[in-house]
Amino acid sequence: MLLDVRDLHVEFRTRDGVARAVNGVSYRVDAGETLAVLGESGSGKSVTAQAVMGILDTPPGRITGGEVLFRGRDLLKLKEDERRRVRGAEMAMIFQDALSSLNPVLPVGDQLGEMFVVHRGMSRKDARARAVELMDRVRIPAARERAKQYPHQFSGGMRQRIMIAMALALEPALIIADEPTTALDVTVQAQVMDLLAELRREYRMGLILITHDLGVVADVADRIAVMYAGRIVESAPVHDLYGAPAHPYTRGLLDSVPRLDLKGRELHAIKGLPPGLTHIPPGCAFHPRCPMARDVCRTDVPPLYGVAEPDAARGSACHFWRECLDG
Ligand SMILES: Nc1ncnc2c1ncn2[C@@H]1O[C@H](COP(=O)(O)OP(=O)(O)OP(=O)(O)O)[C@@H](O)[C@H]1O
Ligand code: SF4
Ligand SMILES: [Mg+2]
Questions:
Q1: pLDDT tens string 247-257
Q2: SS3 of 230-260
Q3: Which residues contact 103 (CB under 8 A, 6 or more apart)?
Q4: Per-domain residue ranges for the chain?
Q5: 263: left (phi over 0), alpha (psi -120 to 50) or beta
Q6: Residue 32: which region, alpha, beta or left (left: phi > 0; alpha: psi -120 to 50)?
Q7: Measured between alpha carbons, how far is residue 215 from residues 72, 235, 257 in Å?
Q8: Separation of alpha carbons 235 and 26, rounded Å
Q9: Which of 140, 204, 217, 220 has the most C-beta neighbours closer than 10 Å?
């Protein structure tokens, strides 16, 4: 197992009290596998990823429990310099906003080349040649010429390709992409996702794809983890989850997106808002918004129940998952 996150807890001290952003998240990613992490804004997707990458702001953030096993080693127990080495060479992250992640005053070829100079001890000349190869690899046309240009001279989609090239440079075993295409228009989104999926296959990387766009994940992910108020409420192979969700929140998400295969079906947004994380409702955190809620939901926190499937692990944190699954 490449990455095995176990019972991770993260909180933030805020003026309103302690915000419990991550409340016992567990997920696993194998080499060559894509896990999509899905959920509304504020559900803890990015904070979980930051804790895994070791880039959480501490303070105000604090990891209060759990393990992040990467190739069997608990990253939370490493010293900062060891951690930095893992982060540089073995795992990399792609962010939504490439412009603010790239250096505006350095040509992109030099930025890419810097990775090989620093981590691989290459000469400037060799590093530049590798940078051009990499730009070619992520299909930036006229790579040799464009390597001399600055980030602002690229379109959003092309900049995102440069981010992908940066992340790939050292051939990491794991990439975490946090909303990598959200800022792009729809056609470009699809191209960048296709590229990411192709490279993931070619390099046999593990990929964690954070998104709130269900449409994006259907084609590229193997498994989905759905987050709500800092917990995973459903975890399943993509096609099982699309076929029949075992959690009312997932059902709500599925019902809220237009689907080509369900033309003419009415669209529902999930009513209400996600809870504030300083005051997460007791029992099932989703109960104030859940159309299936009953008394027990207001008092008893549902564990992640195992949902029996013939060949793959599946879980739902709903007391009534069976009813939900049956539609
Ligand atoms: N630097 C911070 N200081 C205080 N609280 C924070 C900080 N970063 C995150 N949080 C808290 O953690 C919660 C979860 O944030 P997170 O960024 O993980 O959400 P997300 O699921 O990635 O949402 P989005 O889809 O908007 O990116 C936030 O709602 C906020 O309460
Ligand atoms: S446990 Fe109850 S409130 Fe929570 S999702 Fe299931 S039915 Fe809804
Ligand atoms: Mg986020």
A1: 999 999 888 76
A2: CEEEEEEEHHHHHHCCCCHHHHHHHHCCCCH
A3: 111, 151
A4: 245-327
A5: beta
A6: left
A7: 33, 17, 8
A8: 10
A9: 217
Give distance in angstroms: CA of 160 to centre of ligand 1. Answer: 23
14, 18, 38, 47: which to mutate for ligand 1, most atoms within 8 A of CB? Answer: 47
SS3 state at 179: coil
Answer yes or no: are the C-beta atoms of 12 and 60 closer than 8 Å. yes
Strand order in the sheet with 231-237: 91-94, 174-178, 206-211, 34-38, 223-228, 231-237, 315-316, 305-306
Tokens of 177: 């992409």
Beta carbons of 112 and 136 less than 8 angstroms apart: no
Hey, which of 43, 94, 214, 253 would you mutate to test ligand 1's pocket, going by the most ligand atoms within 8 Å of its Cβ? 43
pLDDT for residue 206:
96
CA 96 – ligand 3 centroid, Å: 9
Measured between alpha carbons, how far is 318 from 286 in angstroms, rounded to an integer?
Answer: 9
The whole-number pLDDT of residue 96 equals 83
CB within 6 Å of ligand 1 — which residues? 12, 14, 19, 21, 39, 41-47, 57, 60, 212, 277
> CA-to-CA distance for 288 and 281, rounded, in angstroms?
8
Please give the backbone phi and psi of residue 7, each rounded to the nearest 5 degrees, phi first.
50, 50
pLDDT under 70 in the chain at which residues? 257-268, 309-312
Tens digits of per-residue pLDDT, 133-190? 999 989 899 999 999 999 999 998 899 899 999 998 999 999 999 998 887 887 888 8
β-pair type (61-70, 3-14): antiparallel
Category of 133 on φ-ψ map: left (φ > 0), alpha (ψ -120 to 50) or beta: alpha
Burial status of residue 291 (CB atoms within 10 A of its CB: 0-12, 13-18, 19 or more): exposed
